[in-house]
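[step 3/7] inverse_fold.run input=structure_tokens len=724
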């Protein structure tokens, strides 16, 4: 058993006989999902309900944080770094390494495939992240920060504070950072929408389809359950630097980092601080979520031995990487490159690497007694950088040019800690860098000085159909991910590579529509991005009018048009839709059940279950299915925003008969005559008890106008989702 596996173990908890359901936030016993585990679980669309938020109605953190005294806050944080507390003493009298690890592990959970994870919500405070083996003792770092959070209150979120603490830690040790932005808003409940892996135990490793290290299951980035990146002891706890190099490259790539950034981050992260494994991992108590009430939310408490200072156990590896672990310098490169390394074990039993020979003065001093010199160490990932040919070239380059390393690391650290904050327009504070970075998906400011009515008139007279107008606007906006604020209609990147060629965007139809809309934009002075959204609004307005209602279509002008030079085409590949239940399309039925994929896309777009329901029903009758498919178009009045989809879905005069893996026919019960066809993404609104309740609301005779109003509101939300 590896040391990390030992750390993952926790004593069992015994619950008394109490009428309260124990473990209600982590177990499904006595819930519908426990009885019917294959049922569609809508919880991800219901999370973060207003009832979980303790702040007053109308509280706007993004406005509150602008009142923050940033210099005073940074002064307090700098002072904290060397204010060692007896209950959790600082290594060498400096908390820098601990704070950097906390910030890193908060941001490092981000993965580019779906934009989930990351530091943007303060999610590290909650399960499961607060109890991950890789986050052992980071609960102590957050408790050390509590007096500062208490002092600045509503003007400072935990999400911002956690990242800023890491930034200030680096600055206090001598690094010139690239900058910092505020604007991360806290959540108040664990995120339920993130698939961290299917393993049922910590440090399980079943996320590979084969023996190939390239087959790591998407969208996962970490190689084992409960880790941020890779296992520090080696692949599945077994040292093998070249295999570890493959894991490092893949996991950092899935966290949006290239080889240069990977080497810089690893070297910069290991320039300061130390690993802790001078004790027995099995002496540690339960993790925070399982600890007794007297622990007050802290975990991994050791009541058997001292377990503080030099005797702390966290990762299980023991030692610092450099001679001066509280100083930003370039000692990491000298230590790694100028010594030969041999495999050994820490006092806690973890695999690590020790120098074959080293001068006494090159050794770091003990964290409590500066008169004692101790051995440095390297993880399997560090040795991987030395042995992997591509990494080695970068490593040696940085060693020869320290200034280059400083700049690359500062930028990579900024990217790591800001990747999920969204476009630069969302950044707040005095330290926001002026430079536009390609990974921020920059978009120039758009024009607002044009005649909106003229644009609408020209669109209406263009000869484009309702379905063409609505589908194009939808395809442009649907790329938005609430998880990391990427994508959306702003920038009109649907007209650039790679989006213009995505199969889900129907390139031939898209090219025809864009040619017309680009002409209107050129004639009126509006951006193409604004014209695309206005075109969708015109299409919806025509459908609303045809239904007999007069409902205003809200619009916010000012979107800009991105250029190819502003667009990292490769990074946008992960935004390509391979399914879209709103347009009743799935590229392959092997991707998963259509209804679950629809749910996933709705959550990424920030939609609620009722919003998802009304959008699907409305878009079906508008005829905007991909490639003109007739599945789910339960109406004889295509182009009219009616409630026909819900009326016919709930009509008991008909029954549904399967005709394929994802195909069904609606047949009259008496005659057997087929009336309409459908997919699972249609029928789920009649079969799932919660979604059927929403469908019945919209099927009612007295709710035809409600459907139209709700559709317009949900449509507007999608079109404006990427506006800061």
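[step 3/7] decode complete -> sequence:
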């Amino acid at each position: 058993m590896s040391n990390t596996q030992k750390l993952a173990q926790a004593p069992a908890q015994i619950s008394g006989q109490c009428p309260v359901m124990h473990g209600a936030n982590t177990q499904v016993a006595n819930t519908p999902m426990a009885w019917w585990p294959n049922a569609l679980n809508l919880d991800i669309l219901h999370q973060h309900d207003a009832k979980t938020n303790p702040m007053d109605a109308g509280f706007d953190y993004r406005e509150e944080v602008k009142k923050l005294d940033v210099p005073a806050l940074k002064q307090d944080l700098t002072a904290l770094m060397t204010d060692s507390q007896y209950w959790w003493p600082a290594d060498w009298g400096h908390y820098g390494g601990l704070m950097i690890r906390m910030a890193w592990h908060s941001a490092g959970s981000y993965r580019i495939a779906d934009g989930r994870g990351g530091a943007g919500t303060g999610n590290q405070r909650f399960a499961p992240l607060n109890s991950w083996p890789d986050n052992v003792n980071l609960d102590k770092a957050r408790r050390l920060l509590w007096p500062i959070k208490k002092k600045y209150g509503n003007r400072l979120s935990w999400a911002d504070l956690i990242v800023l603490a890491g930034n200030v830690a680096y600055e206090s040790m001598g690094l010139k950072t690239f900058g910092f932005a505020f604007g991360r808003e806290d959540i108040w409940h664990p995120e339920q929408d993130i698939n961290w892996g299917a393993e049922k135990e910590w440090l399980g490793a079943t996320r590979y389809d084969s023996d190939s290290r390239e087959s790591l299951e998407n969208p996962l980035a970490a190689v084992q359950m409960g880790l941020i990146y890779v296992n520090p002891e080696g692949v599945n706890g077994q040292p093998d630097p070249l295999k570890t190099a493959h894991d490092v490259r893949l996991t950092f790539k899935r966290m949006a980092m290239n080889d240069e950034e990977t080497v810089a981050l690893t070297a910069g992260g290991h320039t300061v601080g130390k690993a802790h494994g001078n004790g027995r991992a099995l002496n540690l108590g339960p993790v925070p979520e399982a600890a007794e009430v007297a622990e007050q939310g802290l975990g991994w408490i050791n009541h058997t031995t001292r377990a503080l200072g030099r005797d702390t156990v966290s990762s299980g590896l023991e030692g610092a990487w450099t001679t001066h672990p509280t100083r930003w310098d370039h000692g990491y490169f000298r230590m790694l490159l100028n010594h030969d390394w041999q495999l050994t074990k820490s006092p806690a039993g973890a695999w690590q690497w020790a120098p074959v020979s080293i001068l006494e003065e090159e050794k770091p001093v003990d964290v409590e007694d500066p008169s004692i010199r101790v051995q440095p160490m390297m993880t399997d990932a560090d040795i991987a950088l030395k042995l992997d040919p591509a990494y080695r070239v970068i490593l040696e380059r940085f060693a020869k040019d320290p200034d280059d390393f400083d700049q690359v690391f500062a930028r990579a650290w900024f990217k790591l800690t800001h990747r999920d904050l969204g476009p630069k327009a969302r950044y707040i504070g005095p330290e926001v860098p002026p430079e536009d970075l390609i990974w921020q998906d920059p978009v120039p400011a758009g024009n607002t000085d044009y005649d909106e009515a003229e644009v609408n008139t020209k669109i209406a007279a263009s000869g484009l159909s309702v379905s063409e107008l609505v589908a194009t606007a939808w395809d442009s906006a649907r790329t938005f991910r609430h998880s990391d604020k990427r994508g959306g209609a702003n920038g009109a990147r649907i007209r650039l590579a790679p989006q213009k060629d995505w199969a889900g965007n129907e390139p031939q139809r898209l090219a025809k529509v864009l040619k017309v809309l680009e002409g209107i934009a050129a004639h009126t002075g509006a951006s193409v991005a604004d014209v695309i959204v206005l075109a969708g609004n015109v299409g919806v307005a025509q459908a609303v009018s045809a239904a007999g209602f007069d409902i205003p279509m809200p619009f916010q002008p000012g979107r800009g048009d991105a250029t190819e030079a502003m667009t990292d085409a490769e990074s946008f590949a992960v935004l390509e839709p391979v399914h879209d239940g709103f347009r009743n399309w799935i590229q392959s039925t092997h991707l998963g059940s259509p209804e679950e994929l629809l749910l996933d896309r709705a959550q990424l777009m920030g939609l609620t279950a009722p919003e998802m329901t009304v959008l699907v029903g409305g878009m079906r009758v508008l005829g905007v299915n991909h490639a003109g498919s007739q599945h789910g178009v339960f109406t004889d009045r295509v182009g009219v925003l009616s409630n026909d989809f819900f009326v016919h879905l709930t009509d008991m005069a008909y029954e549904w008969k399967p005709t394929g893996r994802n195909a069904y026919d609606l047949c009259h019960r008496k005659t057997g005559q087929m009336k309409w066809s459908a997919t699972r993404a249609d029928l789920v609104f009649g079969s799932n008890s919660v979604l059927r309740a929403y469908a019945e609301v919209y099927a009612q005779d007295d709710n035809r106008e409600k459907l139209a109003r709700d559709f317009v509101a949900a449509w507007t939300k999608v079109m404006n989702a990427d506006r800061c």
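[step 4/7] annotate
The first strand starts at residue 274 and ends at 275.
The chain has 25 helices and nine strands.
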